[in-house]
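Practice problem: predict the structure.
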Amino acid sequence: MKKKHHHKKKPSFTKKWSAKLHLWFGLSVGIIVFIVALTGTMYIFKDEIQGVLRKDVVYVKAETISQQPLSIEVLKEKVSLEVNEKYPITAVEISLDKNKSYEFIYYEKDKKAWNYFDEVKVNKLIYVNQYTGQILGIYNEKYDLFPILKAIHWSLLLNSDWGKYVVGIPGVLFIIMLITGIILWWPKNKKMRKGRFSFDWKNVKTWKRKNYDLHNILGFYASFVAIILSLSGLYFAYPWVKNAFNFTLSGSLELPKEKEIKSPDSLLAKNNAILDLTAQETRKLYSTSSSFRIPLNGKNKKGKDLKNIPVSVYGEDGKFAIRNQLAFDKYSGKLLSNKPHQKLNNAEKYANANYDIHTGSYFGIVGKIIWFITGLVCASLPVTGFLVWLGKKKKGIKK
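Answer:
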């Protein structure tokens, strides 16, 4: 009797090319995916860790709290004398919690530099007791662990303007790898599906099979959150991604531009208490918010002179999604505009929320935990994937 030969069905065109793309892209950008995923994962609980480590400077002593804090100008002068930094103070962040100290920020960049350490001229954070003027803590954030992790994650410690593309290209390829990975994982029938959702290692003794299951099963579960992570990261890196989000959410490629508001009060002499008037009005308008930030150097992010005093008001601690924007005349302190979160269009709301979505904080502590686990899995995928490829390659050589 002739023996029957059971021939394996050839993979479909889609699976065949999915396998090739998955392998090629994995081998080409796997190391970058590993670095970016690991540093991003380590950054997720930054606020919680710093909240514990800096508890003594974040909160002022109860016995020093009085009804009225010192003038921002007075505090600014005290910080300038104490820190003795050649660059001006960039901004002050004020919490609406009376128990929390003021945060004075120094931040200056050299856009022509090619790496993080040369690009960031200064990045210092000074905690001040607003009731006594005491400097509670001075932190050189430039050399702190979390800003360095963020810089590696953002641009591999390269210049932030063009280094983001070095990370962005692997980010695009990683999304393709996730999609092709799901295609390769997808079982042909119900019988095969059972073994794809969980680990069954009772009769499995080889590390190769266990490694293969780790790559396959963990990769599948992490893929859906990983795609959200990757897209929200690309939103920062590529204008065309941001434009696509804007158009999808609001029907326009660009976000609405802020109109320059002219005030007749600008002809008056500058009020010395301008910053305190601004802070006082902000507290009245948004008394239930978390904190607000006032620029102190008169410059915007691009280094151009500000026409007025823009104040960003944050709705919740550790989040940027709920953000209200105020503008005051820089001479009289008159309120020129008030744009609450509710009046923003969908694209503007998403622009404010994208950072929180990327870090998982948008979904609270549960979201951060899920994002953390997903990040660890994403960091493991290039490793387990490489081992799968190496095992197959060695097997092929032996044959």
